[in-house]
């Protein structure tokens, strides 16, 4: 695997390469990321990953400095997963001057995750557009675990006519249903036992909707009540339509239920797509 930190070096390395598939990350990789890398291989000829902890997407109360940096272990995993080129810029490489031009996603950036992480999606969209311009991939992969991020980036790519196909990759789960996340490492053994409740609650909503329940507000309230009764502190459980994460209108069938809730220290997020019958 070639590793490049500077933008010119990366551009030289990628010159003439065919069908570039790109998987951006912030490092601290787990099995979910590695599944993305292996999936990337099936979509093109050159798999490019990036590792960059993007200061722009961290809020003032989110600890950018404490974000785990595990570069050597990450490189070993990427190499084993068959990644061809790793772009690992320093902050000076990527932001040599203050990033004054930024991407301002529409109102959805202030809802759901955005309500609790103001400015987060502006930082994500800005760095991803910049990374797209540097790597110039034909395809880019993102995990569905960060569903709102995937939706915002998909819509940004379409509205700005970027010649990139965005592929959403299914969430990788532990055997008990818990979505893989680097935050799971902060759970105590007891909390780890409790943690799969989040995915069970989401599956319960999908089943209730399939059985005909259409009072979504009631389902959301019941889900929050169940989590909180078991020691969670929930930010939201929300049923939305997949395309733009707005509240479903009658006739909308492609839905997703998204949740964020704190169990002990870590704040876990998860979601589940589902389809209402015609
Ligand atoms: O999902 C992430 O790890 C980050 O938000 C991303 C897409 C790499 C942008 O910094």
From TrEMBL:
Gene Ontology terms for molecular function: ATP binding; pantoate-beta-alanine ligase activity
Pfam families documented for this protein: Pantoate_ligase
Entry binding sites for beta-alanine: 57
Keyword Membrane in annotation: no
Binding site for ATP: 26-33, 143-146, 172, 180-183
Subcellular location: Cytoplasm
EC code(s) of this entry: 6.3.2.1
Catalyzed chemical reaction(s): (R)-pantoate + beta-alanine + ATP = (R)-pantothenate + AMP + diphosphate + H(+)
Miscellaneous note of the record: The reaction proceeds by a bi uni uni bi ping pong mechanism.
Subunit organization: Homodimer.
Family: Belongs to the pantothenate synthetase family.
Record-linked HAMAP family: PanC
Name of the protein in its database record: Pantothenate synthetase
Organism of provenance: Propionivibrio dicarboxylicus
Record gene name: panC
